[in-house]
Amino acid sequence: MADSINAAVQVNNGTTSNNGGEMIHPPPIISSYNDKIRPILDAVDSLRRLKVIALPTIVVVGDQSSGKSSVLGSLAGISLPRGQNIYTRVPLIMRLQNHSDPLPELLLEYQKKSVKIMEENQISNAIDKATVEIAGNNKGISNVPLTLVVKKKGVPNLTMIDLPGITRVAIGDQPENIYEQITDMIMEHIKPEESIILTVLAASVDFATCESTCMSRRVDINGQRTLVVVTKSDLSPDGSLEKVTSNDVNIGLGYICVRNRIKDETYEEARIQEEKLFETHPLLSNIDKSMVGVPVLASRLVEIQSMIISKCLPDIAKKINEKLNASVLELNKLPRVLSGIADAMTAFMQIVGSLKETFQTIMIHGEFEYLDDKEMNCNAPLVEMLDEFSKELHKSIIFRGNFLVEEIQVLKEANGMRLPSFLTHSVFMCLLKRKLNNI
């Protein structure tokens, strides 16, 4: 694996000039072991759709306008929605697959729909339309994901999740708690130990105090699963070298500086200009070449992805077997064939009996065995439910000083007709039904 990784880095770091200084076409940003990792990544992606266990994931986080979409677009060689008033509002799962066919295949999957995109210039519109279907016409967010499958020649085999950019102030018709919604969503995705945090920072910001950096440090104190991509290096070159070498915020996986595509540049032109920038700029040229460029970023991500998957595979297999065994046990408890009413009644009585035993265990012994250890013991939820029921009961029936006044009045009116201090059956039932209806 180490030899493959080193070979991949050498391939991806290839030069763009020949011995005579003449510029040539840059190499594709793929790894030499793409074919080896693709089947494993497909299996992981299939499991991710089932949502049964936590899986290795590269999660992309950053402030709004930090350049996240531009970085992802550079890796995929496609144009994603971007601009001053365009924001990511739902999780975008990007599945990049190296494709031998020169014609790319593009697919957008969401809410059990599958939309084939015929032209690359239609990607932004397709994503915008799907986002509106999921999150509405306003600028609110949703945790329902979109999946963009990009099968294209020369792209790295990667799966990444791009999350909404962090913002503190609600804009336009965004909900007032938009910051809390976004941070909750990000924390949900970066908290699992299997997640790799790809933090995108603009070169102009203070890395130590940036919101996305602070969030990653809350779940990854030692920075062992955090990689930082520094964008817009060409716009803020001063101090970039010191920021990425001093590592004041303890980023374990390191820094990579990139130059995003500008305006109508093709991705090939952008890569050529990026290499020129880090080769010739008086300040940026001092940054080590293993820390600059989109090809280096692609190689590093594929390397990290393969390492985290290989590390997590035994645990993934164990969790799948546990889930499978638990499901089989539950399945075996169900009757195989119900041929008639008698069989259905027998099955029903078995379920009722099992439920009775469960409640006895809860009420008498205060115990309940869950298959999932993360679930709470049943005592606390049961007490909470009873407390809520008690509150609702007291809201619907307000006991004041007139307790039993109505009943006493009826007793007085009925006195002499029946036995003293006893109501007739019909009157008693009427009052009882009234109380029960209130409850």
List keywords for this structure.
12% strand, alpha/beta, elongated, disordered N terminus, nucleotide-binding
Structural overview:
The chain is α/β, with parallel strands linked by helices. The chain has helices spanning 2-12, 34-50, 68-76, 123-135, 178-190, 211-219, 240-246, 267-280, 294-333, 341-365, 379-396, 405-414, 425-438; strands at residues 57-62, 92-98, 105-110, 113-117, 146-152, 158-162, 195-202, 226-231, 255-257. A 9-stranded mixed beta sheet has the order 4-3-5-2-6-1-7-8-9, with helices on both faces. A hairpin with a 2-residue loop joins strand 3 and strand 4. The chain is elongated and about 110 Å long. Pfam families: Dynamin_M, Dynamin_N.
What is the SS-derived class? alpha/beta
Sum up the overall morphology in one term.
elongated
How would you spell out the order of helices and strands? HHEHEEEHEEHEHEHEHHHHHH
Overall pLDDT, averaged? Answer: 78
Low-confidence stretches: 1-27
Strand content: 5-15%
> How many helices does DSSP assign?
13
The largest sheet has its strands arranged as: 4-3-5-2-6-1-7-8-9
Q: What is Rg? A: 31 Å
Count the E strands. Answer: 9
- State the major sheet: 9 strands, mixed
Q: Percent of residues in helical segments?
A: 40-55%
Distance between the termini: 68 Å
